[in-house]
Amino acid sequence: MVNAHWPLPRVVVAAPASGHGKTTVATGLLAALRRRGLTVSPHKVGPDYIDPGYHALAAGRPGRNLDPFLVGADRIAPLLRHGASVPTPADIAVVEGVMGLHDGAVGRRDYASTAHVARLIEAPVLLVLDTTAQGRSAAALTLGMAAFDSAVRIGGVILNRVGSARHETLLRDALAEVGVPVLGAVTRAAEVAAPARHLGLVPVAERAPESVAIVTALAELVEATVDLDAVLDLARSAPPLTAPAWDPVAAVGGPAGVERPRVALAGGPAFTFSYVESAELLTAAGAEVVTVDPLRDPALPAGTRAVVIGGGFPEAYAQALTDNAALRAEVAEFDGPIVAECAGLLYLGRSLDGVPMCGRLDSTARMTDRLTLGYREARAVTDSPVARAGEPVRGHEFHRTSTDPGHGDAPAWRWNDTEHGFVTGRVHASYLHTHWAGHPDAARRLVEACR
């Protein structure tokens, strides 16, 4: 049992902007601390799916998201405590930030920013600085980041992309002037990079052997360049967590009936985008959650009563998906509820870039040059297996594809005065990614729809 006042050591890895090396440092820290024999709980600010995959590989337990916009600010500390408690209590939690430290949801000041989350979980910040073409100005930048919000404590700096020993000395001397300790320095030559794709890093599940090698290299990099004892001391300076742990059983109100319907959750390399809490909520609502890989499995698991197909990169696997004709045909005829987000929407359509998909929806999809990205405040238009008409939901879009048409006669959602997605029979499909911890009734409603 975890005490009501849990002195969980924790630290937030942040940066002044994207591209400074947060993921490199956070993933390397997770792996290096685990190699020390510590149980490490990995977390990510924001709606990102890919970084948590690297975190999970590094920590040996699921990477979890902390996103106030999607789940509400009051759930952030409880979700941190839950994630750090299961399957066993962690010795330390490492939270990777999103974008720049103070960058929040557009039009909402710093709401849902890394700084916002750091305040909610009362964690010190470890600031990662890209020092390319910078000298003493790095100290001024750090001082400004710290002074901008006095409630956010920057407890140390990791210097990244340091050019030389002389450059490092200059930077350390400048930061000493403003009283911020340097806890590590990574040279440009030593930096480790993971291959990227149009939506960010290539997911771990798509390239497991290479991913393991990258995580190992990041662990060795951090061990060689970061003062891990100083990082641990910083993490231990966080006050005890007093918020109760989030409980999926309480969130859904317990099992929805006595039977345990089997819910198939799409996984494998093509469908890697799923929040851990979704499966936990479905289980808490009474479902038996099983995994199906649309690339390789010729059929849905026996006894499947509902299917959930999340996000991913089906465009990178279109031919393999179409070659699995048996599963596509079964999904096309499946008479239970189906919930599909983004990649799932594409898989259910007639075709993707001209390659046949399931044909369950009367739509086609294609890759575009335009990135659609951002938070959405949506409202359900049509009753479906996951929402009642009129219900407000917060979500996130992140894709470079479009569908024709953009919505069906019975749309799934409406936001920005436009209708989106499809509700066809017992199918609910759209581009909107939602975090069910923010609206747990979706899990209970889906289990009830299995009857």
From TrEMBL:
InterPro entries (UniProt xref): CbiA/CobB_synth (IPR004484), Class_I_gatase-like (IPR029062), CobQ/CobB/MinD/ParA_Nub-bd_dom (IPR002586), GATase_3 (IPR011698), P-loop_NTPase (IPR027417)
PROSITE patterns the UniProt entry points to: GATASE_COBBQ
Reactions catalysed according to its record: hydrogenobyrinate + 2 L-glutamine + 2 ATP + 2 H2O = hydrogenobyrinate a,c-diamide + 2 L-glutamate + 2 ADP + 2 phosphate + 2 H(+)
Other facts noted in the record for this chain: The a and c carboxylates of hydrogenobyrinate are activated for nucleophilic attack via formation of a phosphorylated intermediate by ATP. CobB catalyzes first the amidation of the c-carboxylate, and then that of the a-carboxylate.
Swiss-Prot/TrEMBL keywords: ATP-binding, Cobalamin biosynthesis, Glutamine amidotransferase, Ligase, Magnesium, Nucleotide-binding
Functional note: Catalyzes the ATP-dependent amidation of the two carboxylate groups at positions a and c of hydrogenobyrinate, using either L-glutamine or ammonia as the nitrogen source.
Family: Belongs to the CobB/CbiA family.
EC supergroup of this enzyme: ligase
CobB/CobQ-like glutamine amidotransferase domain segment(s): 262-439
Domain notes: Comprises of two domains. The C-terminal domain contains the binding site for glutamine and catalyzes the hydrolysis of this substrate to glutamate and ammonia. The N-terminal domain is anticipated to bind ATP and hydrogenobyrinate and catalyzes the ultimate synthesis of the diamide product. The ammonia produced via the glutaminase domain is probably translocated to the adjacent domain via a molecular tunnel, where it reacts with an activated intermediate.
Pathway: Cofactor biosynthesis; adenosylcobalamin biosynthesis; cob(II)yrinate a,c-diamide from precorrin-2 (aerobic route): step 9/10
Chain positions of site Increases nucleophilicity of active site Cys: 433
Ranges of residues in domain CobQ/CobB/MinD/ParA nucleotide binding: 11-199
Residues of the active site: 342 (nucleophile)
Pfam families: CbiA (PF01656), GATase_3 (PF07685)
Region (Disordered): 389-412
EC code: 6.3.5.9
Source species taxonomy: Bacteria, Bacillati, Actinomycetota, Actinomycetes, Micromonosporales
Protein's name according to its UniProt entry: Hydrogenobyrinate a,c-diamide synthase
Biased composition (Basic and acidic residues): 391-402
Requisite cofactors: Mg(2+)
